[in-house]
Amino acid sequence: MDDLVGLLDTTHFRAGLRLGLVALGVGWALRFVVGRTGPPLPIAGLLIAIVTVASLFLTEDPLGPTLPALVAIVVGVFATRMLGAPGWAHALAAVPGAAWLAFGAPVTTLLWVKILMLVLIPVAGYLITDFELRHASRGLGVIFFVLAALGMFAAVPDTEQALVIGAASVTIGLLAWPKVAASMGPEGAYVAVAMLVWIAASGGEARPPSIVGSAACLGFLLLEPVLVRWRPALLTIADRLRRNWLGAVQASIPQFILVVICSRIAARFSVMLPAILIVIVGYGLAVTAAWYAARKTHPAETAVASL
């Protein structure tokens, strides 16, 4: 407990918390200016990235070419979206910035981590954007990302930068819970993931399995878009939950469990193979639970499909 209190008294945490509170105020002000009705404002992901970068700058953490790489991701996604391009084109437009961040920013010497960043940023950004097409009104994209950021903090051995994005995510997450004012947003989904994996790569290099666990903490943000195509009946599960703060908590329980598995079990190994196996087991359990939930939702449909 004393160690945790000590971490919360660090310059990194205080910077992330203070700027996060400013961003929270700005977000709610924009919500009232635009109007309290209508869809959530697509700004939470951008605010998380901006606060994290600004906080790292204030704590004199070297960013190097990280900032222009993040800007390239945002500009690429925004430009393709303004041109009316489909979602897969947004992912392709994020690739140059992701490559710049992975190979141009001296964040890690591990080649497989650089490749992971190059692949995960566009893929995860695309999947989170798809996730929010169904769940933005409940704030689940933001809430699930907050859990992923906290999981990454719990996973990596070097926690200073992770404290920043953790504090930023938790405070800005109040734009999505208990009342929903904001969603991750298309550009925000890509750049927030980029910020998360960049910090995971920086903070986890001393124990590489923690980088795998950190990336896996994205959990149902990656799984749900795939699962609903495999079992469309899963779309009705969220509809059975109340559209309020309690329903959001209930919907977040599977994500929380998966984050715990990835951050507190898989990420604690010092060698890679058991960490990967634990992640596979965790994701396998999630898929099995989804299949069972779909079967309980539409048992007749599942029985016919099995004939």
End-to-end span in angstroms? 55 Å
Total separate domains: 1
Helix and strand pattern: HHHHHHHHHHHHHH
Helix fraction by DSSP (H/I, runs of at least 4): over 70%
Question: Quaternary arrangement of the chains shown?
Answer: single chain
> What's the tally of helices?
14
**How many strands, which pairing sense, and closed or not: the largest β-sheet?**
none
Q: Report the radius of gyration as a whole number of Å.
A: 19 Å
Strand content: under 5%
- Low-confidence stretches at least 5 residues in length (pLDDT < 50)? 299-307
User: What is the average of the pLDDT values?
Assistant: 90
Report the count of strand segments: 0
Structural class: mainly alpha
Global geometry? globular
Walk me through what this model shows.
The structure is a single chain. This protein is mostly helical and 307 residues long. The protein has one domain (2-306). The protein has helices spanning 2-8, 11-34, 44-58, 66-82, 87-104, 111-135, 140-155, 160-172, 186-204, 209-216, 220-230, 245-265, 272-297, 299-306. Helix 7 (140-155) runs antiparallel to helix 10 (209-216) and helix 9 packs antiparallel against helix 10 (209-216). The radius of gyration is 19 Å and the shape is globular. Mean pLDDT is 90; it is low at 299-307.
